[in-house]
């Protein structure tokens, strides 16, 4: 079978199975049979035909069975019995399992070693891309091509300038330049000036065209970069169909009823993050239905709705995203967890009594741990929440749990994201432009002078008959402004009694941006979630709205000056420019500030100014050698203890002995140079690339 056809089948089958699952869930929740049953029939019929094309007998047989079972209800217009919906959901799940097996590695014959996994062997990831996003990308490419074509004029102008430069060179080397009559020299000077003016004009035109053309191309390429990144971003709502189907499938197997409530579907994230999180949430949802929700009769006796509720929420928290799965069931039986831990030998009986709630809940994430007394299709195998934690670790995140007796349990998955897309409100704060995520805002208000009531550095104003705490955003950015009666544009965060507001100078409008985390080399900035880039490539800070709201309520914000990060300065002395550049690149990449000197004399002059944490010096240099430099340094009381690393091509025992006698702290032979060892030595002697102060 053609691989291309199989790939298309998998994409189509996944979509049809998702539609079938969501359709049967909708029927169970009261959808109109007259509309839904014919649609379900068509989806099953389409899936059957597609499966037969690729000779997938198992999916084709199940789809045909679904089609046959639905046909009488479609033809006669009779409502589908609600007690049969669970069986249909199980059939959809079976087809999903059969589809998943298509990407599973082939079975290994007895005695054979499994083939090593390779990148080429992985199934390619596929994402649905909105046509409008693809059209935007293609429009940007077309515009960039036009802009690049315009640069041809600049290239032609450069060619004219080169021709004029050749003419000027000919004039300057002509015999009349040094000999000939006064009239000949006058004519020569006139021609030379004319050629020079032509050269100046050609260079001016070329510069103008290059400057304007390159600026426009850079703007288009910046827009293309963001559009390309946006193609990778998928709305979190794509998770919800599979989670809803999993919840209803588990409930049908256990004789329970469930409703799944989903929030935060508009959060857009990396496709590979959502693909991994999907598996974690599937386990969490099944676990919630199985272990969390009570049976219908028990819920009724407790005064709860017959159908249990599972909430799945996706929300941004700075540079991280939180996935929450919460049920309204019985809560975790912590005593049962303690007993199971002792029975499985995870803790000693004498130590079990001292385990607090956090330690007991942490046991739920242990591989192989289960409180179920028997093995069923859903329970007892110890596979579930351990998968959630493993996926969290793979994503450099964390998984935690919380529980409340008789009220329910929450499983929380926090993961960092490399990219996310969101709508923002752009605002001006003094000379800065910042981005405020729109989903955290409830209103914008124009406050005239005198509308604020100040109490020290913070203020409040009346909004919808409620006093709302207010703080200038400039204060959060480390530039406090004294209270003064002036007009403000206020941005209101949150809703209800928890509302707070920040003041900005001007609102610039709403647009969608791609947000990236700050580079690791940038010190942590208070209340900043990440950065985006405008059309000119300028970085704009994206504010952390959760943290910002918290600090407004507290009446204070952290400032960058509260914890100053200083880079340690290293002086590199070597007469070889190659060695200087090599060592400078390595040190600056590691976070050090580097000064350079080409001789021992220059190095001694620079180091005497102070401020260096370490010196790296060569031995053989013109003038003052590295050994002489070290001896002079050791004779200066203020610098006698400054660490010195000698890096030299001289590597004999005698050479190293002379270095030690001169007072070097470490000796590195260039022929044995190792970057990691070099940096380890530098860090050991200097104290590391940064020093932190308060």
In short:
46% of the residues lie in helices and 21% in strands. With 694 residues, the protein is of the alpha/beta class. The longest helix is centred in the first third of the chain and has 51 residues, at 182-232.
Describe this structure in words.
Residues 110-121 have a biased composition (Low complexity). Residues 103-122 are annotated as: Disordered. Residues 1-106 form the HPt domain. It is a single chain. The chain has 694 residues and is an alpha/beta fold. The strands form five sheets. Strands 1, 3, 8, 9, 16, 17 and 18 form a seven-stranded mixed β-sheet that branches. The longest helix has 51 residues, at 182-232. Residues 116-124, 374-383 and 557-564 have low confidence and may be disordered.
Radius of gyration equals 35 Å
Inertia-based shape: extended
Which strand-content bin applies to the residues?
A: 15-25%
Instruction: Report helical residue fraction.
Output: 40-55%
Structural class: alpha/beta
* Contiguous uncertain segments of 5+ residues: 116-124, 374-383, 557-564
Distance between the termini: 67 Å
Count of distinct strands: 25
Give average pLDDT, whole number. 79
Main sheet, how many strands, which sense, barrel?
A: 7 strands, mixed
């Amino acid at each position: 079978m053609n691989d291309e056809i199989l790939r298309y089948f998998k994409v189509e089958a996944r979509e049809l199975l998702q539609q079938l699952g969501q359709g049967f869930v909708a029927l169970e929740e009261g959808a109109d049979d007259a509309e839904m049953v014919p649609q379900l029939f068509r989806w099953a019929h389409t899936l059957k035909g597609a499966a037969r094309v690729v000779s997938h007998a198992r999916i084709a047989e199940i789809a045909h069975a679904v089609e046959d079972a639905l046909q009488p209800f479609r033809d006669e217009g009779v409502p589908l019995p609600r007690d049969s919906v669970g069986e249909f959901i199980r059939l959809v799940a079976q087809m999903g399992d059969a589809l998943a097996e298509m990407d599973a590695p082939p079975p290994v014959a007895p005695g054979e070693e499994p083939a090593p996994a390779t990148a080429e062997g992985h199934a390619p990831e596929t994402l649905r891309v909105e046509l409008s996003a693809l059209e935007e990308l293609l429009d940007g490419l077309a515009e960039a091509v036009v802009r690049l074509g315009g640069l041809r004029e600049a290239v032609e102008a450069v060619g004219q300038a080169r021709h004029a430069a050749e003419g000027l060179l000919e004039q300057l080397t002509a015999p009349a330049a040094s000999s000939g009559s006064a009239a000949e020299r006058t004519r020569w000077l006139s021609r030379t000036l004319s050629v020079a003016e032509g050269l100046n004009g050609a260079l001016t035109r070329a510069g103008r065209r290059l400057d304007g053309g390159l600026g426009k191309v850079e703007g288009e390429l910046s827009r293309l970069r963001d559009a390309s990144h946006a193609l990778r971003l998928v709305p979190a709502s794509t998770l919800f169909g599979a989670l809803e189907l999993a919840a209803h499938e588990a409930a049908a197997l256990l004789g329970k009823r469930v409703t799944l409530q989903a929030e935060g579907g508009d959060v857009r994230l990396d496709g590979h993050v959502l693909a991994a999180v999907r598996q974690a949430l599937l386990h969490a949802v099944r676990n919630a239905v199985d272990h969390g929700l009570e049976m219908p009769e028990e819920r009724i006796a407790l005064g709860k709705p017959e159908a249990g509720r599972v909430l799945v929420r996706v929300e941004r928290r700075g540079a991280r995203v939180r996935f929450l799965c919460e049920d309204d069931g019985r809560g975790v039986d912590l005593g049962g967890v303690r007993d199971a831990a002792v029975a499985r030998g995870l803790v000693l009986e004498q130590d079990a009594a001292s385990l607090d709630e956090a330690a007991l809940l942490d046991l739920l994430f242990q591989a192989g741990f289960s409180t179920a007394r028997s093995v069923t299709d859903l329970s007892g195998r110890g596979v579930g929440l351990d998968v959630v934690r493993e996926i969290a670790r793979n994503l450099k995140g964390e998984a935690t749990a919380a529980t409340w007796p008789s009220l329910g349990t929450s499983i929380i998955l926090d993961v960092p994201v490399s990219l996310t897309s969101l709508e923002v409100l752009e605002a001006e704060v003094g000379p800065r432009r910042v981005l405020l995520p729109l989903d955290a805002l409830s209103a914008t208000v124009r406050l005239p002078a005198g509308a604020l009531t100040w109490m020290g550095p913070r203020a409040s104003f009346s909004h919808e008959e409620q006093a709302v705490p207010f703080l200038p955003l400039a204060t959060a950015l480390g530039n406090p402004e004294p209270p003064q009666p002036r007009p403000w544009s206020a941005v209101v965060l949150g809703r209800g009694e928890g509302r707070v507001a920040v003041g900005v100078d001007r609102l610039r409008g709403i647009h969608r941006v791609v947000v990236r985390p700050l580079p690791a080399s940038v010190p942590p900035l208070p209340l900043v979630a990440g950065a985006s880039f405008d059309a000119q490539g300028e970085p704009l800070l994206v504010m952390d709205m959760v943290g910002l709201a918290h600090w407004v309520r507290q009446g204070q914000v952290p400032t960058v000056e509260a914890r100053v990060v200083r880079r340690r300065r290293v002086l590199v002395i070597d007469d070889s420019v190659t060695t200087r550049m090599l060592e400078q690149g390595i040190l600056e990449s590691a976070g050090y500030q580097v000064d350079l000197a080409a001789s021992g004399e220059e190095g001694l002059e620079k180091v005497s100014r102070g401020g260096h944490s370490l010196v790296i010096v060569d031995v053989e240099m013109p003038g003052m050698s590295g050994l002489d430099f070290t001896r002079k340094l050791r004779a200066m009381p203020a610098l006698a203890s400054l660490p010195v690393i000698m890096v030299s091509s001289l590597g004999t025992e005698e050479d190293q002995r002379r270095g030690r006698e001169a007072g070097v702290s470490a000796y590195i032979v260039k022929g044995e140079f190792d970057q990691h060892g070099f940096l380890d030595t530098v860090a050991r002697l200097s104290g590391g690339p940064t020093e932190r102060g308060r």
